[in-house]
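Escalated from tier 1: flavin mononucleotide holo job.
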Amino acid sequence: MELVNVFDYESLAQTSLDAGTWAYFAGGADDEITLRANRRAFEQVQLRPRVLVDVSCITMNTRVLGIPVEMPILVAPIGFQGLAHPDGECATASASTKTIMIVSTFSSRTLEEIAQVATGPLWFQLTAPNRLWTERLVQRAAAAGYRALVITVDAPRSGRKEAAQRLDFHLPAYKANFGDEPMGNGFTSLPTWSSLAWLRSLTSLPIVLKGILTAEDALLALDHGMDGIIVSNHGGRQLDGVPATLEVLPEIIEAVNGRCEIYMDSGIRRGTDVLKALALGAQAVLVGRPIIWGLAVNGADGVANVLDMVRTEFEQAMALVGCSTLTTINPSFVRRMVFNGYLNGYHRS
Ligand SMILES: Cc1cc2nc3c(=O)[nH]c(=O)nc-3n(C[C@H](O)[C@H](O)[C@H](O)COP(=O)(O)O)c2cc1C
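Tier 2 regenerated the structure:
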């Protein structure tokens, strides 16, 4: 069967992984209300195409934190990619040519090994057990050429994935980035607003907070000198019952008012999803699980193909909606179908 979209990769990935591993990758927290809401939100935003625009030449080149990328579609941090393919994050990095890959602290390969084979820019998603490890990892990431730090703020503990639990799935003991050195007594100093100043003082790398869902926290991120925000609900894997990110994006865009860069993830599967997120104000999106599907099915080639599918669909969506550059995408290209969320940022017709 020819694979024509990322959902085809999803079906094939499911058959190629054992049930427990699949449940770990696919699952959301608890009742998976948020997991479902992420997709539903995209389905409930409609497009308002403008016609007779010259779309013979579409360009989607942009900059993310000043880094040139060939598309506004980034690779989300996902830990333990070795469970999907023996080459793990090295395969993903070698396939992420046109864009930024964000490497999880819980990568199956070391951050240095990944940097060696990367074909595009890298950011490092930092989760450290204590201040000593924070300093070490920040230093190592900078030395290996990572261009920004991503601090995941929605996971002071891990959401429960019940399907994986039922299948008695357990993650393997983690080693790669920590080697055989003792990590100390578990994760004793998770970041708080009050420790961000210390983190800021450690490095001149830009810092991005991932997992913001309210205007209040977006404003705090600005107060703390953060360079970017990823509006994310962790793909529905953390607090079940939070809204889809597409629904909260407008309130955050409005509150931040251009003072830092804003990206979003959770549920991006189609080129039209990218268009909807950008129309509502995101500067770029991150793709999560589809990367794993590509990796599980066909390693680096699978990841490259998945990224290419989303890119090609987005290019098609730009042409059909009447936008030849990213700067022409704005809220007038979307309308709200059903949900009674925040109205600002939507075209009211
Ligand atoms: C299996 C899996 C592992 C993940 N591991 C991490 C991680 O280590 N760090 C992190 O910040 N986010 C992690 N995430 C969240 C992703 O970065 C991203 O927010 C999410 O997958 C986006 O939603 P999507 O899968 O619907 O595209 C993980 C997600 C999945 C599915």
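The chain has one domain: 6-172+197-328.
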